[in-house]
Write a sequence for this structure.
């Protein structure tokens, strides 16, 4: 089932999400619906707070971001995963900028600087405990989604000057004055576009 994605200004996006346990009601259905919603919206990641569930669950599928390898290079393997109760243990390496966007803040893209390597501890969809290292674009996708379960948006990571320049666009999104190819909910208004 396609879920509505909450837009900028919705209070759920600013809450620090709560941990879930294996008997959380409807968890597997939530995860399946999140994947369906993410694919409908052409995203590469989606966090539960973005579908108005303030729990520490996010999903990623980096397939659309994997480039064809140059001659002599190993092909990059796409990563499709579920992260439950994740904790980033470390962020290291070179800080690099990338033009990020967010399904909850449509039509806004800004360069965000992040470290290129992370170590993350989490549970998968079967509640198997894992600690893994990621780098490059996959690390960035994870960092972006992890921010969502911490109540942080990518625009919080840009300068105050850039945020000021975006003020009118953000107000339009907050009011639901935006067109998307997926259903969205804006504070107290639901719009299907």
């Amino acid at each position: 089932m396609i879920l509505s994605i909450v837009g900028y200004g919705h209070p759920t996006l600013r809450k620090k999400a709560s941990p879930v346990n294996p008997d959380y009601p409807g968890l597997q259905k939530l995860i399946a619906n999140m994947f369906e919603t993410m694919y409908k919206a052409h995203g590469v990641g989606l966090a539960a707070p973005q579908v108005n569930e303030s729990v520490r669950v996010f999903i990623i599928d980096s397939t659309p971001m994997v480039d064809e390898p140059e001659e002599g290079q190993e092909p990059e393997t796409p990563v499709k995963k579920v992260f439950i109760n994740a904790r980033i243990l470390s962020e290291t390496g070179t800080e690099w900028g990338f033009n990020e966007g967010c399904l909850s803040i449509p039509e806004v893209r800004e360069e965000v600087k992040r470290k290129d390597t992370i170590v993350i501890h989490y549970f998968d969809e079967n509640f198997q405990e894992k600690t893994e290292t990621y780098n490059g674009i996959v690390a960035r996708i994870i960092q972006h989604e992890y921010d969502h379960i911490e109540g942080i948006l990518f625009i919080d990571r840009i300068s105050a000057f850039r945020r000021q320049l975006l003020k009118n666009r953000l107000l339009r999104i907050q009011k639901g004055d935006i067109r998307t190819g997926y259903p969205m909910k804006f504070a107290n208004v639901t719009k299907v576009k």
